[in-house]
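notes to self, project folder thing:

trying the whole complex as one job this time. last attempt i did each chain seperately and stitching them together was a nightmare. two parts in total, labels are on each line so i dont mix them up again. if this works i'll redo the older ones the same way
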Amino acid sequence: MTETDTKVRPRRRGLTRSQKRTVSRGVQYAVFVAALVALGFTADWGQLRNQFAQVDLAERMFPDIITLALKNTVLYTVSGFVFGLALGVVVALMRLSSVGPYRWLAGIYIEIFRGLPALLIFIFVGVAVPLAFPGTEIPGGTYGKVALALGLVAAAYMAETIRAGIQAVPKGQMEAARSLGFSHARAMVSIIIPQAFRIVIPPLTNELVLLFKDSSLVLFLGVTLEERELSKFGRDLASETANSTPILVAGLCYLLVTIPLGFVVRRLEAKAGEATK
Amino acid sequence: MSTENSAGGRSGTPEIQVRGLHKSFGDNEVLRGIDLEVGAGEVVCVIGPSGSGKSTLLRCVNLLEEPTQGQVFVSGTEVTDPDVDIDAVRRRIGMVFQQFNLFPHLTVTDNLTLPQRRVLGRDKAQAAEVAAENLRRVGLSEKATAYPGSLSGGQQQRVAIARALAMGPRVMLFDEPTSALDPELVGDVLAVMRMLADEGMTMMVVTHEMSFAREVADRVVFMDGGVVVEQGAPAQVIGAPTHERTRHFLSRLLDPAMADVEDAPRKSP
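result (full assembly):
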């Protein structure tokens, strides 16, 4: 600062900027500590420990919770994701179609399935589909039903993501492909969609995390012992033993998958951000 | 309109023929009746101010834009016929874009081989051979395994030319191929285009590179306001333009600082 500057500007009154920052930070820490102390004193820790931290009960859950419940959760999620992805690509292409009715149909589909709770769709698949098509079994039994229900929900979200991804591919790519003699469909498959997928991999992975959690809704389809996934497994044992430890363990199993997946998503997003620079 | 109707190039039958071409975008009529021929082996440079419709004209030739009215023939096939197999016609017309439009998710070689395999049905070995040959022609054999993103603009544009050539086109269209390049990279691209011209390729080039037009073109077409104002040999159109609009455009282009000074006395008759 030059001398003229200090003369023109009057000296600030009160706190300097760094002093204000210190005060603000101090207040935030104080609130944080106060909240912890309040929680520590008010919660009934003994009761919590009895309900949620029975080590012998937790030990009883292994290895079934991994070899059966976690395995089923992953299976349900993956089958739902694969079906949802296929349907999502179709709906996205319909949404971009030059044929009006396709666009409307895709739009209506997306609005309905994004607007409904996933739970209702599970119930719908469990109840309405057998009623509507009597005698026909959804192939794959429970796995097929879950793939259908999860896929129907996921497709609505993924269709919008994929559509945005396709539209994010520069127009010149389609023009270059067409000028080389590609048909529109072939250019889509060979040139546009591969590029669109690179753009949408992070949001699609995020959708995988959401599906992983939504697979808990299998609870409402009625499953055999062999078909139980994490939530059902945990809840059954919890009601059998009148203790909530199994719920906690099941929850930890979800985090075992979702936290690394979330980490992967952030890495992919950072990479995608770099690539577009 | 000019009195020089198609200089005829180096041979008789025109490779590109445009008749009474009109193109509108909504209420905006960009092309207002274009008649033009490009002979086999001829190099035609289309010049004109921005917004004159020259790029639109080029894009109508391979139907990237659909003409509102009029006809376009390429190698005797009517491109504007609704029943024409446009994909088959486009295989014979190479196009090079201002923004290169290489496929960024593919290596340089795959950029050249994928279209050959998918569109022409060539097998992998054959496509790779053609790709290598064309990369050599544009002087980029050593970039075969690189991705477009790691190349300079000039290199990308040369790969784009090689990609078009790998399809074995009869005609090449260039839409301002050097306009997106840093000045020091323009020369390499123009050298490749000059080589093509020398080999007898039929070329239609929309460009602002007057020295290229002067030296390489067989004929220069000046467009303004959606019509062909004047056309003829480069020495005539660029060297001694007969139309006021052409003179005005060229003086601005060649020396932007001088343009207004020169304009002033002429404007008052």
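what i see at first glance: Strands of chain B lie at 14-25, 28-39, 43-47, 69-74, 77-78, 93-96, 171-175, 202-206, 219-224, 227-232.
need to look closer tmrw
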